[in-house]
């Protein structure tokens, strides 16, 4: 319809045809509209159930805060604040729903007439001004962005990072690539522009469900263990905590027995370990006895308390192992039995039966990395590296060992288009916007690769040399003369290992794009 010179009459016919197609696209069936309405009611019902559950959990927390303010008082204050901003956010969304449905009729039961809610002009006028969000639309986006930020600020370290990440993901507003539109749309455009009114109402109700789910997740995460009240001393479980799990022959077996729910005011009437009385302390009892012969040995006994005029005995049952003094070290590469040049190789180095802080390892390129026993190896020149290990026994005597590891280089990466290797197929438009990359296939380490340049060759045309990882104007000009079935070869890919300084990677293999 767009080719050649058209008469005014033909232009009018074409315009009417486009309008007709648009009307067909917007004419959503009554069944679909009703389905949205039923889904909206289900979500509202679920939100009501979640409200009841959240209110019950908060009631338990409030009671605990009153009984034990030192342990639960601060947490109740945090939850109070989160509940306040959650209610304000939910009320705001309910206000938006009221505005966009003010002209919508309801039946005798007070439900919307879903089949009449096929237009979205009220939402479009509220949220958009031309191609950009209106003042109200921007306020809507700001509130979504502020909510997880406010929770993170209020909860601080009381809320685990994994929960913060889950909440941020739940309210994320990243742009979305629309196949229908053939472009990447903003989050609000993709989700709210041009939709039937009932669809938008349902989405807003779901957003309220997300808020209530967030409240529930916060309380469950922060208080799932604290809110379990111990009704009786029988709920306490003695736990044997040894200084170490394995002891040398001739050593004293040392450790302590603690209760699963530690209470500094709780003092046992008596504690018996392996037939001997042990002095009871606040919530625990320390013990020490001879290790015995090599092999496995039991630890038995009981924690004894007075409760309601009766003696409650909580059984102690555990075991320990006695082994001979070590003669060799345990050295293992966390990834494989070789170390690679150009990357950081994590390693765990230990001596069986010796505390990690009493073990020292040395080799060219070897360094400690945080936790005791963890090392990082960055191999130097050569094809092998020897790791020497020295352990200090409890009597201050020394034991030593060593092990040799092979040094290998990083394998050559493979070129990629859209993250795909080998022969990639698709229309020219896909290649024009694609990123040329590289990746290490079947390589156990996470490494960063950056493409700094490449050559593009279309059969029958001159090679184009490109700086960077995307096609330039010259490449697109060459592509414009290529046809379906032609192959475009991306070769001489210059790949750099991120953060590896002057380390040179092997040649990057080419990737081919077949035009369809």
UniProtKB/TrEMBL annotation:
InterPro entries: GldM_Ig-like-1, GldM_Ig-like-2, Motility-assoc_prot_GldM, Motility-assoc_prot_GldM_C, Motility-assoc_prot_GldM_N
Domain Gliding motility-associated protein GldM C-terminal: 411-503
Every Gliding motility-associated protein GldM first immunoglobulin-like domain range: 230-323
Endpoints of the signal sequence: none
Pfam families xref list: GldM_1st (PF12081), GldM_2nd (PF21601), GldM_3rd (PF21602), GldM_4th (PF12080)
Chain ranges of the Gliding motility-associated protein GldM second immunoglobulin-like domain: 328-408
Coiled-coil region list: none
Domain Gliding motility-associated protein GldM N-terminal: 31-224
Alphabetical list of NCBIfam families matching this protein: GldM_gliding
Record's protein name: Gliding motility protein GldM
Organism field: Flavobacterium cellulosilyticum
Lineage, top ranks: Bacteria, Pseudomonadati, Bacteroidota, Flavobacteriia, Flavobacteriales
